[in-house]
Amino acid sequence: MEARAREILEFLELSHLENRLMCELSTGEARRVLIGRALVHDPKALVLDEPANSLDLRALHSFRESVRKIASSGKSVILVTHNLEDVIPEINRVILIREGKVFRDGKKEDILTDSNLSELFSLPVKVLEKEGYYQALI
Q1: pTM to 2 decimals?
Q2: Positive/negative CA dihedral, 94, 97, 98, 103
């Protein structure tokens, strides 16, 4: 297990944190270490619920790059978020939920549209896409 833990730390580019306590880590570092802890058991999927909340821009970038690396390695990533910008390019299916029910389900580019998000939130929404990342403007 120690060898696997070191392998995951290296994969997530966190080897420099190996001998530090969790209470000594920044929020972003701690979040990435917790994901590493889950990966030690070699799961087929990783479920992340609002994982980027309260991260500064640098930590957010590092975190997203780690999740992208995990997704690119063949692991499924299930992401629950209210922030469109958290949807990494490797995510290809999106499910929109309204009042506890599936509102839309399908390919990311078909679901993350002005009309779908405007209807979901009952206000005019403009969706921008750049290099696989999405942003919603109101």
Answers
A1: 0.84
A2: positive
